[in-house]
Write a structure and sequence with these properties.
Layout (H helix, E strand, L loop, with lengths): L2 E5 L3 H13 L1 E5 L3 H9 L7 E2 L10 E4 L3 H14 L8 E4 L18 E7 L15 E6 L1 H13 L3 E4 L2 H5 L1 H29 L3 H18 L11 H4 L2 H11 L3 H19 L5 H11 L1
Parallel strand pairs: 1-2, 1-4, 2-3, 4-5, 5-6, 7-8
Antiparallel strand pairs: 6-7
């Protein structure tokens, strides 16, 4: 059984720890009393929790699961306190934007470095969310096999990012943000307006959300998104009624911004005529 050290007790670190609890020995380094309490509240056993001064680093792999702005601090701490533990170990971070070179200081101490980003959202830190997901890996060819073996052990899929994808890693991460957070924003808007309309959210929304998601999954191989509704139809009068009903609320601002983006997309994809596009943009102004 492999042994792994996880640095960082945020949602990603805790989720990994829960998954590793099944397939590996691990230690989880908490940066603060708050993050330690967070780990305990999420059901991690005390025996697996440690801090910088008591860490063992006996495993083959060290995973850095902290926010981007803290990665350099972690690297410096590893070099200052545990440089003798790094030789021959694979160290990777889970950032969706930073390249593997952000860990380059560790190489002089004998570490192999990489970046391996789990393409997933971690709102609920449940082990199951790691099942079947893609991990975008930025590594040397010689190290990819070892990373793949680890990712396979937690039911993930290691995908070696091309040189172009690594160069455009910020865009790679924006794709994940759009797939998760932007969709969540749309759902929250639908929920708030449904509640204002006096309908039961749990009765009305799940089915349309599920169908919309499945429609768009089916369209992933197409240039045309699975979008319908008044904007795509160029139904100017309905959009006017919507805006009037929403009044001066925050939801009105969000709705108009989303309609503008939808109109731009529909026009760009040839789903909306230039005339209707101009009419919609005029009422959204």
């Amino acid at each position: 059984m492999m042994t792994v050290t996880i640095i960082g007790a945020g949602n990603v670190g805790i989720t990994l720890a829960k998954k590793l609890d099944i397939v590996a020995d691990f230690e989880l380094i908490a940066h603060s009393a708050k993050s330690r309490n967070n780990a305990l509240e999420n059901g991690l056993p005390t025996i697996n929790l440690t801090d910088w001064n008591r860490a063992v680093f006996e495993g083959e792999i060290i995973i850095i699961c902290v926010k981007d702005s803290d990665v350099d601090n972690v690297v410096n701490q590893l070099c200052e306190q545990y440089s003798e533990k790094l030789n021959g170990k694979l160290v990777f971070h889970t950032s969706g934007t930073l390249p593997k070179e952000s860990l380059s200081k560790l190489v002089k101490h004998g570490a192999k470095i990489a970046a391996a980003h789990p393409f997933q959202t971690f709102y609920f830190n449940e082990a199951r969310v790691l099942n079947g997901i893609a991990w975008g890996v930025d590594s040397e060819e010689n190290d990819f096999k070892e990373i793949s073996k680890f990712i396979d052990s937690i039911n993930g899929k290691a995908i070696k990012l091309s040189a172009e994808s690594v160069k455009k890693k910020a865009l790679y991460h924006i794709s994940a943000v759009a797939a998760s957070n932007f969709m969540a924003l749309s759902i929250d808007l639908a929920k708030e307006i449904a509640e204002e309309a006096g309908i039961n959210v749990s009765e009305f929304l799940p089915q349309i959300l599920e169908t919309t998601l499945q429609n768009n999954i089916k369209q992933l191989g197409s240039d045309t998104p699975a979008i319908t509704g008044p904007v795509v139809r160029g139904d100017v009068e309905t959009i006017k009624k919507h805006i009037e009903e929403l009044g001066q609320s925050i939801n009105a601002v969000i709705y108009k911004n989303m309609c503008e983006s939808l109109a731009l997309t529909a026009f760009d994809k040839g789903l909306l005529s230039g005339e209707k596009f101009e009419q919609i943009m005029e009422i959204l102004d």
